[in-house]
């Protein structure tokens, strides 16, 4: 059985993404949580992670004969392993846009990542953000609205049904909730759909049950 190595569920946005994709695809896997923080954190040098991941970072999916690292690569493996799950849309245009919004999340939004750390248990009040962060937040809202307007008629997710795109933006939904970021009605409705998803709620329940904390992140 595949083994998915992940970080703390309260904090690890990159771990949440492939966990959702694998779960939505109905692929059986074992999860093993490796607590983040401590010596080597942020530099890919946590000893327990380096023992299972060539980059020293999570997530990593151990298939026995090989290890796949990087969230997007694991999600792509899930889509190829369970094509009937629809992790990529069958419609070519929807699939192209779906991949575009995933890649934008995978490589961009640096300011938002910097200033809005994932912390499922935390709630704060709205505040004024630096210009680059405000630009990222505005882009997220615009992206969700535009994608939903064109492709979302078949359901509440970005292109209707759940796809890898929703797995990639699920951590963003939690960040916007944590920091009380105002959303357009359309973006708020999309966020509500993600937060109500059974798989996400299972992850969130496990995050709330975790006993360890990361003081440096909790104080942000």
What is the structure about, briefly put?
With 220 residues, the chain is α+β, with helices and mostly antiparallel strands. 51% of the residues lie in helices and 6% in strands.
Features:
single chain; about 220 residues; alpha+beta; Glutaredoxin; Glutathione S-transferase Yfyf (Class Pi), Chain A, domain 2; 2 domains; four-stranded mixed sheet; 10 helices; 4 strands
Helical element count?
10
Q: What kind of sheet is the major sheet?
A: 4 strands, mixed
Which class of secondary structure composition applies to the elements? alpha+beta
Strand/helix succession: EHEHEEHHHHHHHH
The span between the termini is 38 Å
Going across the major beta sheet, what is the strand order?
2-1-3-4
What is the overall silhouette? globular
CATH class membership of the largest domain? Mainly Alpha
Tell me how many strands there are.
4
Quote the CATH topology of the largest domain. Glutathione S-transferase Yfyf (Class Pi), Chain A, domain 2
CATH architecture of the largest domain: Up-down Bundle
**What integer value in Å does the Rg equal?**
17 Å
Tell me the β content: 5-15%
């Amino acid at each position: 059985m595949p083994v998915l190595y992940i970080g703390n569920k309260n904090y690890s946005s990159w771990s949440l993404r492939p966990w959702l994709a694998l779960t939505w695809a109905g692929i059986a896997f074992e999860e093993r949580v490796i607590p983040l923080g401590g010596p080597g954190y942020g530099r890919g040098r946590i000893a327990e992670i380096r023992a299972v991941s060539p980059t020293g970072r999570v997530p990593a999916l151990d298939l026995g004969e090989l290890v796949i690292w990087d969230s997007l690569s694991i999600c792509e493996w899930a889509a190829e392993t369970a094509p009937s799950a629809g992790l990529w849309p069958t419609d070519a245009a929807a699939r192209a846009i779906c991949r575009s919004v995933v890649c934008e999340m995978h490589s961009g939004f640096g300011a938002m990542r910097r200033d809005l750390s994932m912390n499922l248990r935390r709630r704060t009040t709205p505040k004024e953000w630096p210009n680059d962060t405000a630009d990222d937040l505005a882009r997220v809202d615009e992206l969700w609205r535009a994608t939903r307007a064109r492709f979302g008629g078949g359901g509440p997710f970005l292109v209707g049904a759940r796809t890898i795109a929703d797995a990639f933006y699920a951590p963003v939904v939690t960040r916007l909730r944590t920091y009380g970021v105002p959303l357009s009605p359309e973006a708020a409705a999309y966020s509500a759909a993600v937060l109500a998803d059974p798989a996400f709620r299972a992850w969130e329940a496990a995050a709330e049950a975790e006993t360890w904390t990361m003081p440096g992140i909790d104080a942000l």
